[in-house]
TrEMBL record:
PANTHER family: MAJOR FACILITATOR SUPERFAMILY (MFS) PROFILE DOMAIN-CONTAINING PROTEIN, PERMEASE-RELATED. It comes from Lipomyces starkeyi NRRL Y-11557. Gene3D superfamilies: MFS general substrate transporter like domains. Keywords: Membrane, Transmembrane, Transmembrane helix, Transport. This is Major facilitator superfamily (MFS) profile domain-containing protein. Residues 71-484 form the Major facilitator superfamily (MFS) profile domain.
Length: 539
């Protein structure tokens, strides 16, 4: 019976309505937020420079640690596996797959093209499904499917089955990034979000880095083991790593604050999750209809976000670094796989550093422009091409310094568009659909395999796209300020634009939670001490 109820509750979950009297609110949240005048010691203040939760009161800190240990830990592992399963095709190609399967010409690019086609077809429909089916069910099921499909590539004897498998892998993976960005933006506040989005994105860089190490290790120690080529072992191992992580998702993913049913949060913590986000002016999830979805395209928001997002997405050139190394005829297979990992290590450092500065100083678009500049500069050097050997080496690495773009722009969008949870999920879904639609054919023209490694037209095009992505960031700034002015929004104490009616002050963590808005205070006093019920409706 419990299993049946769990299945029924997985589809069209019913949001909760929270009702407290003012006295009940004070009683419930006094200890949780204030912890009797807690003051962090010097060591905790030092740790908070790197991770914000360390200086919070004990119960508040424990709440954030539980979120991080479950939500962040699972999403990190999930994105790690997603990236590993996506990038291993490039490592396998230069590690024996090309020779064993007699691949030629453009087939390497076509493996990516069919993946993009699957991703394109799945991105937007999956966001509609997330609105109907709990993410804690939908996301792990998709991961199980793609992990099995990845292992099946190891059995391929020609390019044809790889095309089919890569298509369905892309279809299954398409839901991960937009849904995760939407979920993280629904659980974490402005001073917390960019760091966590950056750490989430770091999983991609870490996976890309580890893919090189794994392939080098597999090629060295397992090539020919059991009569199986090293590149085949790579797909088998990647799938085996992924399956246990998939099942963790059923437990760790908390859905949304107003629909969560996870056992690792108490009822008090579940209520607090809703209230602390409501104070920001953030709206909870609502039904996503086709009419509402189409209305997004009559507004500047989806265009303002996706202008820089798409252009930066398609202006990457780092995946061609190993082809340049291979063309030098001076490095072994292991070295060709290992050398590019330095760039991913650089991305890890700069991504976290940029996000930490952004969170602490409230800087979103200025940090974005810094990241865009490095991507532009690296592409500019590659477009010139006839430069010293060392500078050309560096040119491939510079775009990785611009890696923080995705974390920063998704954090910025979560804050700018906090009045529409479904839009936040659709932004990157639409962006990925368009960027992958372009990526499905653009590399075939800009980076044809026979022209490797000197792609004259390709590097010039990427340079131009990088520059235009910076212009897109400035367009976003102008349009966001214009919308705030035209809609009469006010800025709350967190620097977020909200409707005046959505202003709340939970006074965290200085004292107790006070759910009564400013205009309600006078009403409470007029009641001469009567117990006033305050309702927070989650719709």
């Amino acid at each position: 019976m419990g299993v049946i109820n769990w299945i029924k509750g997985s589809v069209n979950p019913v949001p909760r309505e929270l009702k407290y009297t003012n006295d009940e609110v004070q009683e419930k949240f006094r200890v949780f937020l204030d912890d009797e005048g807690y003051q962090p010691n010097a060591f905790r203040r030092f740790l908070a420079q790197f991770w914000d939760s360390f200086e919070k009161p004990p119960r508040y800190r424990w709440y954030l640690h539980k979120l991080d240990a479950n939500v962040m830990f699972y999403f990190l592992l999930s994105f790690f596996i997603k990236t590993l399963d996506n990038t291993n095709i490039s490592n396998a190609y230069v590690s024996g797959m090309q020779k064993d399967l007699a691949l030629n010409g453009q087939q390497r690019n076509l493996f990516n093209t069919v993946f993009y086609i699957g991703y394109i077809l799945g991105s937007i429909p999956s966001q509609f499904l997330i609105n109907k089916v709990r993410p804690s069910v939908w996301l792990p099921c998709c991961e199980v499917a793609w992990s099995v499909l990845v292992m099946c590539i190891a059995t391929a004897q020609s390019a044809t089955p790889i095309y089919v498998l890569r298509f369905f892998i892309g279809l299954c993976e398409s839901t991960t990034y937009p849904a995760t960005a939407m979920l993280l933006g629904s659980w974490y506040r402005p001073e917390e979000l960019a760091k966590r989005m950056s750490v989430y994105d770091l999983a991609s860089a870490l996976a890309s880095m580890c893919s090189g190490f794994i392939q080098a290790g597999v090629y060295t120690s397992m090539n020919g083991l059991g009569g199986i080529a090293g590149w085949r072992w790579l797909f088998i191992i990647d799938g085996i790593i992924g399956l246990p992580i998939c099942f963790l998702g059923f437990y760790s993913i908390p859905d949304f604050p107003n629909t969560t049913r996870v056992s690792w949060l108490s009822d008090l913590e579940k209520d607090f999750s809703v209230l602390r986000m409501a104070e920001l002016g953030q709206k909870s999830t609502r039904k996503l209809t086709l009419r509402r979805f189409l209305s997004y395209f009559r507004n500047w928001r989806i265009y303002g976000f996706n202008w820089p997002y798409i252009l930066f997405n398609i202006s990457g050139t780092y995946s061609y670094f190993n082809l340049w190394l291979q063309s030098l005829h001076k490095y072994s297979v292991q070295q060709i796989n290992l050398i590019p990992t330095a760039g991913y290590g650089m991305a890890i450092f700069t991504c976290y550093l940029s996000a930490n500065i952004s969170d602490r100083m409230g800087l979103r678009w200025p940090m974005l422009l810094v990241a865009v500049f490095f991507n532009f500069f690296g592409n500019l050097l590659l477009a010139i091409w006839d430069i010293p050997f060392g500078l050309k080496y560096a040119a491939f690495f510079f775009p990785e310094i611009g890696y923080p773009v995705w974390a920063l722009i998704l954090t910025w969008a979560s804050e700018a568009f906090q009045d529409d949870a479904e839009l936040r999920g659709m932004l990157s879904a639409v962006g990925n659909t368009i960027s992958y639609s372009i990526s499905a054919w653009l590399p075939l023209l800009a980076f044809p395999t026979p022209k490797a490694p000197h792609y004259v037209w390709g590097y010039h095009l990427m340079c131009a796209l990088s520059f235009l992505s910076g212009i897109g960031v400035l367009f976003f700034v102008v349009m966001e300020k214009r919308e705030k002015r035209m809609m009469g929004r006010v800025v709350n104490k967190y620097g977020l634009a909200v409707d005046p009616d959505d202003l709340m002050d939970l006074k965290m963590p200085e004292s107790v939670v006070d759910l009564v808005r400013e205009e309600k205070v006078a009403e409470v006093e007029a009641e001469k001490g009567k117990n006033v019920e305050v309702s927070v409706r989650v719709v």
